[in-house]
## 1
Amino acid sequence: MLDLDAYLARIGVGGQPALDQLHRAHVTAIPFENLDPRRGIQVSLELDDLERKLVSDRRGGYCFEQNLLLKAALEGLGAEVEMYLARVRVGSPHGTARPRTHLLLGVQADGTRWHADVGFGHGTLREPIPFGPGGEYEQAGWRHRVVEDGRELVLQSLDQSGEWVDLYGFVPEPVPLIDVVTSNWYTCTYPRSPFVTGLIVSVQRPDGTRESLSDWNGGLSLTEETPTAANVTDVERDEVPRLVATRFGLEATLV
């Protein structure tokens, strides 16, 4: 079982936090990063390994690690949690079918079913939103909504030009852990997976600012975003260890 007290200390909360407080604290405390698969190290989803990496070693991780850790914490607090696998849509032409390489959670808490996700990098939800299609939800200036597209539910975000952008789509049917393990194995070992070939480290600040270091869009750059503006700075490769340490709180030796 998860050492719940250690996890809560890691994200800076105590007692019996509400779902929104827990979610927000996790997002702003634990970086999103792919440093292990980028170095050829397979990602383990065993709870002991997740706890050692993200809690004890104060590392970050990607969606499977982040959301499985959150799931364990929520269950330790008495919530009922289901897992869903999504196809990432952002960054691909409309209608392109990508593999199901994103994990999100459905959480039953306080008499309501919630869409929770602390693992979509710098664009992830800061707080849970009600599960299924509905209204617009503003979080520190960022706006999200869920719409239907055939059998799928699609999480969208309002971009700085005022357009709704698809982030990911998923069929609202819970999946077993073995499906999650399979998707994780593909994501961290497939030779053309962006988590194997590229670099992404990101975090959301408490004030709502998003910061990311990535080469996914071509050149290596450091991006700082607010809901209304973005500042992109080109980065040289030899600067990466210092930035990883100073901007994201990770060990420079990991790069």
## 2
Amino acid sequence: MTGGVGFGVFSDGAAGSRVGFRVGNGVLDLAAHRLGDVFSRPSLNAFLALGPAAWEDVLGRIDELVTSGADVTPLERVSVHMPFDVADYVDFYSSLEHATNMGRLFRPDADPLLPNWRHLPVGYHGRAGTVVVSGTSVVRPCGQTKAPDEPTPSFGPSRCLDFELELGFVVGIGSSIGEPVVPDSFRDHVFGVVLVNDWSARDIQAWEYQPLGPFLGKSFATSISAWVTPLALLESSLVEGPVQDPEPLPYLSARGRFALGR
């Protein structure tokens, strides 16, 4: 779809918040074009819950509307909002380079890459209630910090506020407790992607993260883009994943093109 960016929630003037599809510098009002009642709501959740067949059908109808020259609302006339309600999220080390760089930051005198990373996904559950849409003001957090040469910790604002550009995968169809999802079923559950700004108070995190991992140094804010790009629009960018050494255990093995390239 030429110029298609993705789904989001927008408002303009006195009209309420609703779902739109961004095309270039405009927003296609999906409810106004009668694509379904799920798009008159201020969240994508109802649409995401319909599953892959519905996602594909709607994208096809949007493509027809865009190709026929349907009216769009100029981007400068709209306000954007959180695109979906976040029930839960997990933050992972995304690559060898990511894990190694973080290890060097927190363990400068030891092996930066811990042995488990080469065998399983390493992640932690984040604080869903602090996920905000891009552009939301972020308050610098306060907490305890302790330098190696200080005898006791002190309390105050973070002096090492950091951010990481990451990619977030948006799950549309959930799974049942106790029923594993195999890697090859990825597209049966994941709808699309958002850009993520993973805010971190590194000085607070360095003091508090052992032994249980990130807490207040990571849980004060996570920003996501207002637009969710469906996986279907990224098919041409899917490539073979890097060779894993050692080879993952069978339950983590995925076939085909599953990594995003340029």
## 3
Amino acid sequence: MTSSDIGPLKPSRRGISIRAFLLWIILAGIGGGIAWGLYGNEVRSRLGVLPDATPPSSALMPTTSVTPANDETVALLKDLQASQKRTADQLETVLQLLTSEQATSKATADAMAALSAKVDRLQRPTVTVAKKPAPAALPKPPAIAPVAGTPAPAEPESSDAPTSLRR
């Protein structure tokens, strides 16, 4: 089995990406703002909260002439603000964890890439090229004495000399 049989490694996906998570948070905030703009006055009137005509600073300051229904509303608002604070803190913690997970994932991917490169280098065959000695360096074979009664072998013509064709 070779690395070409396996194919390229694909990064594994775990969970939701940070970009998608932040996009959903932004969309939820926009949707909440639109809903508050459309239904905010109705919610305030049902809760008995002071209308928008009063300045917001006076609405947050407790007064001595608060009715029991307004005490409950103020308590609910304080609980809501505390809940929003906890949610914001939890969101910040989750974002920090996601960032650290992303860094760990990147480090793991880098280590895997380095390991894959090493494995590829080990699987690649090593070719050793033997150098052929130069023809001038080869020793000439010893001359063999002709046996009596046999003709002597003809000397081969030198390949360096030009040859011509005659008719």
## 4
Amino acid sequence: MQHRSERVMIETERYRIYGALTLPRDGYRSRMSDFLNSSDRDFISLTDVLMEPIDGGASSRHAYVAVARSHIVFALPMEEEPA
């Protein structure tokens, strides 16, 4: 199966998380909404991640982060990270 990477912003109660979500190139679960609504996974894997605390504080970068699906408040596809 061929894949593509889509930049996303995921917000939890404590963090705004920018990262790359790997999705199928086309077909089943190729949309971010399909992937996030899939009940067969409890965590969403992101790579090349920037985490910003909602209440302020220092941002941090990580090569990989797994976000619990149950903690996601909302998610958006992004063109690019904020400056």
